[in-house]
Amino acid sequence: MGVTHHGRTYRLDLADPTLREWTCTVLHSSAEDGIVLDRSAFYPGGGGQPPDHGVLLWQGVQTRIAGTRKTADDLYLQPVDGDPLPPAGTEVTGAVEDDRRTKLMRTHSGLHVLCGVVFRDFGAMVTGGSMEPAEARMDFNLPEVPPDFKTRLEELVNAEVIADRKVVTKVLGREEALALPDIIRTQSNLIPADEEEIRIVDIIGLDTQTDGGTHVASTAQIGRLQVVKVESKGKANRRVRVRLTD
User: Fold this and answer.
1) Of 9, 198, 244, 246, which is least surrounded by CB within 10 A?
2) Fold for domain 101-244?
3) If you compute the radius of gyration of the chain from its CA atoms, what whole number of angstroms results?
4) For 163-187, what is each residue's pLDDT tens digit?
């Protein structure tokens, strides 16, 4: 299947995360399953990043898309209940909701900056995380927390944002990718054993890790990140809650 395709769908969202509108053809359409496109810029969700919302426009009709159901074979766009379905073979225009996607890209890249800073300066691995547009949380294996951790962490993270580091994505073969030092930043290795191509997101000079989501082109595009709260979730687990403030 590889990184550029999922089943019958070419992943425009990974080829160009700035793309918001495109033309494509409906390959499958049913009320039970959903809609399969030959090309799609809808991020289907995964790795903590929620799926995109948007619309399909066809023959003067609008079909709202509320999410995506992923199977091993295909990506099924999920229309809003009651909206009309474009028949298979129809040429449609897809459009991703810009504000939601852009905030999710900024938030996701912000989490990678957070992860890179905590790993570099505090030696902690990620144990979990989730995000919504403009807010997120990330959990770390961090038994000892300095008294000024929250304030210091926010300063360190925003220094990296201001540094305007480039954010680069690339696809490597499994052996080459796993040979990179510290490429796995989670407590457990979540890469499927049969995955032959691995997508890498590299914040140049700060953080390099496997990732399948959408990101901004440089850290300055994230905007200011506020560390809202640091919580204890067990003997060694610390939950860091963050949000975008502009």
Assistant:
1) 246
2) Threonyl-tRNA Synthetase; Chain A, domain 2 (3.30.980)
3) 19
4) 999 999 999 888 888 888 777 666 5
